[in-house]
Amino acid sequence: MTTAPFTDEVADADAAHAVGPDYVQAVGKVISSHVRNELAGAVAFDEPAIALAPGPREKWLACRIAMEEYGHHLKFSRLATELGLDAGSGRTLSVFDYQLTSWAEFVVLKALVDEAEVVLMEELVAASYLPLRNLVVRLLPEEHFHVSFGKARTRELVADPAAVPVVQQAVYDLVGFTVPFFGRSVSANNEAFRAWGIKQRTNDESRAHWVGRCKHFVEGELGLRFPHVEPHWNG
Ligand SMILES: [Fe+2]
Ligand SMILES: [Fe+2]
Fold first, then answer.
1. What pLDDT sits at residue 87?
2. Residues whose CB is under 5 A from ligand 1 (ion)?
3. What's the 143 CA to ligand 2 centre distance in angstroms?
């Protein structure tokens, strides 16, 4: 690991290997986690949402979102292959244990969980590894669309008082499942990512950023309760 801050821009896979194996390992971990989690999300949530969607227009939107999430998996996979990584192994995040049973839960999920993905991708816009930076710049508009779709459909739902309890429960459940998404407060991986200029924020800073955005949406825009979230999380 470097002692001085690493401020180089790394143009491609060959340049990453020239920096050294520690750099390849660090950038590889970030890419691999996106490879796994984009696929896990598409399989667990986005593809099942097509069947849960109540009408043709919602099915069309769910198809588009599922297509984009599978596409994110394939595009991160290409980066992993270029670096010579086997990105298929390793754990997926706890959020994918959430059992999706309704279209209402899906739209809340897109509003809150995809916001977590947006928070993680936004900081990679300044990543030292340029292929990763360029990819997230291309993918962020799609993730922003997923969040804005989720927010718009959730706002529509809560206009019906009968739907409020379902939305409130989904908020509580999904926030609980998503807190670990950002990693532990004490994280050697995150230290390496920051040392190599791949990420800028600590895991707790990213978590707090996500909580701030979601709390603003849930309390400020929906008028519902947002659960208390401790920014420190160590499993
Ligand atoms: Fe995605
Ligand atoms: Fe997404």
1. 67
2. 38, 69, 72
3. 4
